[in-house]
Write the structure tokens for this entry.
Amino acid sequence: MAKTPAERQRQRRERLKQSGTTRRDWVLEPEELRMLGEICIQRRPGRTPYSENEVIGLLIRKNYKELQKSLANTCQRCGQALPVSECIFDGENSCLLTTVRLKLAIKA
Ligand SMILES: [Zn+2]
């Protein structure tokens, strides 16, 4: 017997859940949504555009790699290895936490 669309959708969700994927519900501003659509198309000229899901996933992976490189540092002042959230020298230019904080922030 043929499955109903609802049954197929439920099975699809179950398969995705079992493979470890999760669904997220984000809020995007209209401008961000427009930019996402353009990224999907403009990053694959002459080819099938990326899906929004692919772009988000790839950007997360790309940013994570860059972040891990930035975190592979040790403070010359106190000797702590990143990631650290506290240092008694925080605020001094010689403290890695002070300088890296500016580097790690996502700038628009
Ligand atoms: Zn330090």
Summary: DSSP finds four helices and no strands in the chain.
